[in-house]
Write a structure and sequence with these properties.
It comes from Corynebacterium striatum. The protein is 38% helix and 19% strand. The protein is an alpha/beta fold.
Length: 276
């Protein structure tokens, strides 16, 4: 396996693959790889001749363009990530610096995500999805993948990027892999590393509430949200049920529907979702 830190290395590698007409799977990540990322790499390995895993903590999708503790404290260990990716069959890890990805500083031209990027996570984190769409567009242009793999845990991200691919005519198939959960139900996330044992137990309230909505244990979203907010150590940002294609709110009894939650547990803001 090869580790590239520059765009030039990656572009030269891709030119070689083009000559051999090989399919390429891209798994974009921000590192701190876990079992959820592993499922994406495995899926890419099964369907493609070449697998590229990007490891890049993108400041554009954080508040204040990365001038925040969330960005500074985000776990980073490229060596461990590269070893993990290699163990699952990745051919390339692309791990650029911020200066390599944005050599002129904060870009002047961005991909705007409109109304779909302004609700839910976008309302809580203004500009977040514009930052995601911008960096993913750059990765698509650099890697030119046949398929790109994203986790369903970031359900709004998947919906936004599907629309971006369709609206901007990117020649790539976007593949969404199911959420990987620990045995106790907690959705795998790089941010889980920042939870202590007590906080991790408290975080189980998120998935418990989502499954309760699915199983009819709550009469309304409002009732479920109040119950979650009353859980020890949990502060709810939002809990909602939406149409999975448009992200517009629907009644809890509607089908198909997607329940999404964001909440603070200890120092960490966690998200989760579940198809109802």
């Amino acid at each position: 396996m090869q580790v590239f830190t520059t765009k030039k290395e990656l572009v030269e590698f891709r030119a070689q693959q083009d000559g051999q007409r090989r399919s390429v799977g891209l798994v974009p990540t921000m590192g701190a790889l876990h079992a959820g990322h592993g499922s994406l790499i495995k899926a890419a390995r099964e369907a493609n001749d070449v697998v590229v895993v990007s490891v890049f903590v993108n400041p554009l999708q954080f508040s204040d363009l990365g001038e925040c503790d969330d960005f500074r404290n985000y776990p980073r260990n490229v060596e461990a990530d590269a070893a993990f990716a290699e163990s699952l069959g990745a051919d390339v890890v692309f791990a650029p610096s911020v200066e390599e990805m944005y050599p002129s500083g904060t870009p002047l031209a961005w991909v705007r995500t409109g109304a779909m990027g302004e609700v839910l996570e976008g309302a809580s984190r203004p500009g977040h999805f514009d930052g995601v769409a911008t960096v993913v567009s750059k990765l698509f242009n650099l890697v030119r993948p046949t398929r790109a793999y994203f986790g369903q845990k970031d359900a709004q991200q998947v919906a936004v990027l599907r629309r971006m691919v369709a609206d901007l005519d990117f020649p790539v198939k976007l593949v969404a892999a199911p959420i990987v959960r620990a045995a106790d139900g907690l959705a795998e996330s790089s941010r889980n590393q920042r939870l202590n044992d007590a906080e991790r137990t408290q975080a189980l309230a998120l998935s418990r509430t989502l499954f309760g909505l699915r199983d009819g244990n709550f009469n309304s979203v409002e009732e479920a949200s109040k119950a979650l907010d009353a859980s020890d150590g949990v502060r709810v940002d939002y809990l909602t049920v939406v149409d999975p294609q448009t992200l517009k709110p629907v009644d809890v009894s509607a089908r198909p529907a997607l329940a999404l939650v964001a909440a603070h547990v200890g120092p960490v803001r966690l998200i989760d979702n579940l198809e109802l």
